[in-house]
Amino acid sequence: MIQTRAIRLFTERGYDATTVTDVAEAAGVSPMTVYRHFPTKEDLVLIDQHGMLVAEQIAATPAAQPLVRRIGSALIEAVTTLTGDRHGGDLTANEQFLLARLRLMISTPALRAKHLDNHYALQQAIVGAIIDEGSDTDAAFHAHAAASACLAAMHTALVRWAEDDGRSELPDLIAKALAAAFGDDVVAVASE
Amino acid sequence: MIQTRAIRLFTERGYDATTVTDVAEAAGVSPMTVYRHFPTKEDLVLIDQHGMLVAEQIAATPAAQPLVRRIGSALIEAVTTLTGDRHGGDLTANEQFLLARLRLMISTPALRAKHLDNHYALQQAIVGAIIDEGSDTDAAFHAHAAASACLAAMHTALVRWAEDDGRSELPDLIAKALAAAFGDDVVAVASE
DNA sequence: ACCGCAATGGTAGTGACTACCAAGTCGGTA
DNA sequence: TACCGACTTGGTAGTCACTACCATTGCGGT
Fold it and tell me: Is the CB of B42 under 7 A from strand D?
């Protein structure tokens, strides 16, 4: 509720030009109630309830597959469940909300920076899910590089999605970005 | 000068626990002089004078090579000129300064976020250097994915470098991270 | 001695965010 | 009905990053 109003205000007037007090008034609460629910102004846009189950999904993946494929398919699956299946029809309300958030995140420096940092945290979680305690540092290094590159590809896909107004299916875009970054053969199977 | 004092203070007391006024006093100037030279507190750590010539370097690279190799070798070259050649000897003063900055950047959320966003800006510049005005959107999409993944690999290398106290050569680490992300064959030639 | 200009400092304000405390609301219990 | 404790909300006052506007100082050139 507060979040919905906030994103509408941010979209209309701009993020920086909107104060937290504005958001509070629009939502009919006091500024401190806003801070109670959203620790920072940025979190009004960035907090997602969906959590980061990606890491768990990856841990459940057969370890024999190449890292890029394991991570890539987990990302695609997470996004698929997030946006839901829609084949050619209109955007769902959820997707429109995601698009609005995404546009804010990409165009506002402060939000973009924190969003990239969230990806960074996700990367740590992914590597934690892949790597055992005892494994050598080289393995961790490889896992970090692979996870980092996969998330970067995903971010590229998100930007593209926002640019084409959500016309493309997000999972397909992620698969394409992964293929562009790593070569078609490596990722081809990931999108199934 | 101001920057040196600032990084020392941040390292000793922590970034958040140090106010801009503290930095100003330590440098013997007024707070506003600090803001004159560094538009934000974060820039006290993040501003690098070295600029982003990477994009220009890439534009000068033969276009026939695969994107990943073009971007990767440019990154390695940029870092080599930044840290200088040192084969097994002690760390140079410059490298020690870079390490201190890097540790702050990695461990402080606000700095890490802005640092990742700087990489993002670099990515935009790289893609701008690679892609002509008229080229189709798919080409741009591929370039973004490749650049994004390369920068992510570079960041991983930076973290590893900070963790091993600069013992490794940074260019080698970047080459290894690229190889881990993209496969050895793709990048092998990039480090020469 | 004078002028122009760059760098510096002061003042007052805005806005994000915190700490501490007060008050209302609501479910269960005697 | 009266009471109690937990949860949620609101108020006050303060810190700190950052800005806008203006005054001052130092310094090289004429």
Answer: yes
